[in-house]
Design brief:
The protein is mostly helical. The chain has 3 domains: 194 residues, Growth Hormone, Chain: A (Up-down Bundle); 51 residues; 245 residues, Up-down Bundle (Growth Hormone, Chain: A), CATH 1.20.1250. The chain is 78% helix and 0% strand. It is globular and about 75 Å long. The two termini are 19 Å apart.
Length: 512
């Protein structure tokens, strides 16, 4: 690739400064990740505050993740060109102002605008955090730093949800935005003091066509995954979005193949590391997101727990995930990246199988805890080598793009997992409850078919049948749970076989 590379600051040799850099970028990452999931715990409060429909509330939540995912690749590339520190600081400023505006928003329109702007700021921050690590840490320390970053990226969402649930319980939903603003202030202070600037000076112009087609492709496909389960997969807008997304994706690939300096060199997917790392993160984050779709209704509708207690119940999995992400580089150094990835994926499959086998209405939390423990360890072990496989597959001057690709893959996996496992859970629930509603009044039966939460609400007007209806709904939910978990097991086993055959070599910088 014909380009002149200028690196203003290279590898940082001082261990204390490296620790400060890692802390700064992880705090910035935590602000972004916590904002992805934080508002989920305040859906009823948002609906009441703004007089909004459920669809509008979902848009307030999802517009952030959609704009974040769509802009990751072009803004990650801009970080490589403009300087990673300036882009990080600019992103933190935009994100912080957007978070403050969302917390003070008096109307739905301003809330949506603030969340959209927050997604833009997050798309500037997220790829740069990983790119700073890969460009400033020496080879022997990079894996450990990526392990910490992966732990925050994987477990930070659950931690953010817990802190958000605490704030909603103790104060109001508006206090949810105090946390990201506080994290932004801390990240800015630490970044100004510790994070060096590095940028690359490219001979070729910025790939505007590639950037535009990538944005359109991600927007179209992510929109389908977010809105398809809500409005229907065969709705005209859903089908149009799918067509536009697919056409833009094809146009992106064809354009990139013709460029001397593409935004993303798609030929690199021939490499084992890039291909297997991307596929692994796609599937792992998909299954992980799908599990949350299952676990929260189980805790709240089946066990009758509050949102705060339900979020606290996820903490063992989150903490183990973060621990295993930090442990993964040591394991990979001994047995190889491919073996570590495969072991983590297999352990994740075991966790899903444990939950499918042992979950029950009577068993409560203890019936799913062993599976959650196995899942946390397995996901953590697989995330770090997958992330490193992606970042080492692209050259140093493209680390912003490598980091953005890593993040886009996670976002796609999350959206795909929620759509797929959520649909399987819903279908399994409906099939199970249909056969048990004989003799139930039509109005109550129709409400019960819509979901376990609706069934519990309908039970209030069911009179003497209330107890039986609640039991039927809970057991039907568990039946749907099992189907979703077994599908997750199948996905993980297919991924395990793929990684065993085509995973990265012991050194992730393979060229195969």
């Amino acid at each position: 690739m014909s380009q002149v590379v200028v690196v203003e600051d290279g590898v940082v040799e001082d261990p204390r400064r490296r620790r400060a850099i890692l802390m700064a970028v992880c705090i910035a990452l935590m602000a972004v990740i916590a904002s992805v999931s934080g508002l989920n715990v305040a859906q009823p409060e948002l609906a009441v505050e703004f007089g909004a429909s459920q669809s509008t509330v979902l848009w307030i939540i999802n517009i952030y993740t959609i704009s974040l995912a769509a802009l990751l690749l072009p803004l990650g590339a801009m970080g490589d060109r403009w300087g990673r520190k300036p882009v990080l600081l600019a992103g933190l400023a935009v994100f912080g102002m957007a978070s403050a505006a969302a917390g003070l928003a008096p109307s739905t329109e301003l809330m949506l605008a603030a969340r959209l702007l927050g997604g833009v700021g997050a798309a500037m921050i997220m790829p740069v955090t990983l790119a700073v690590i890969t460009s400033t840490f020496p080879d022997e320390e990079r894996s450990k730093a990526i392990g910490v970053w992966s732990g925050v990226a994987g477990g930070g969402g659950i931690l953010g949800m817990y802190l958000s649930a605490v704030l909603v319980d103790l104060a109001t939903w508006r206090w949810l935005f105090v946390l990201p603003v506080a994290l932004v202030v801390a990240a800015v202070v630490m970044a100004l003091r510790a994070v060096p600037n590095s940028r690359e000076d490219f001979v070729h112009k910025f790939d505007r066509v590639g950037s535009f087609t990538s944005v359109v492709a991600v927007l179209g496909l992510i929109y389908v995954l977010h809105e398809g389960p809500v409005h229907g997969w065969t709705e005209p807008l859903t089908l149009i979005s799918l067509l536009v997304g697919l056409l833009a994706a094809v146009a992106f690939v064809l354009w990139e193949l013709r460029q001397q300096a593409p935004l993303l060199d798609v030929r690199l997917f021939r490499k084992r590391g890039l291909a297997s790392g991307s596929v692994s993160l796609l599937a792992v984050f998909g299954v992980l997101a799908g599990i949350f779709v299952v676990l929260f209704p189980y805790f709240q509708a089946v066990l009758g727990w509050s949102g705060l207690r339900s979020t606290l119940a996820l903490m063992p999995m989150a903490l183990l995930m973060m621990f295993a992400s930090g442990l993964a580089p040591r394991v990979a150094a001994r047995v190889g990246s491919r073996t570590t990835m495969a072991a983590g994926i297999l352990l994740g499959a075991v966790g899903l199988a444990l939950m499918a086998v042992f979950v029950s209405v009577e068993g409560g939390y203890l019936s799913v805890l062993p599976g959650m423990v196995a899942m946390g360890l397995g996901m953590g072990l697989s995330m770090t080598p997958s992330t490193e496989a992606i970042t080492t597959a692209l050259p140093r001057e493209r680390q912003g793009v490598a980091s953005a690709l890593n993040d886009v893959t996670r976002e796609f996996g999350t959206a795909l997992g929620v759509a797929m496992l959520g649909a399987i859970l819903s279908a399994g629930y409906r099939n199970a409850i249909d056969a048990r509603l004989a003799g139930t009044p039509d109005e109550i039966a129709d409400a019960a078919r819509d979901g376990v939460a609706n069934a519990l609400a309908a039970a209030e007007g069911a009179g003497p049948q209330a107890g039986a209806l609640i039991r039927i709904a809970q057991e039907s939910f568990v039946a749907g749970w099992r189907q979703a978990m077994w599908v997750g097991v199948a996905v993980m086993l297919v991924l395990f076989g793929y990684v065993v055959v085509r995973g990265p070599e012991k050194a992730t910088t393979d060229s195969k």
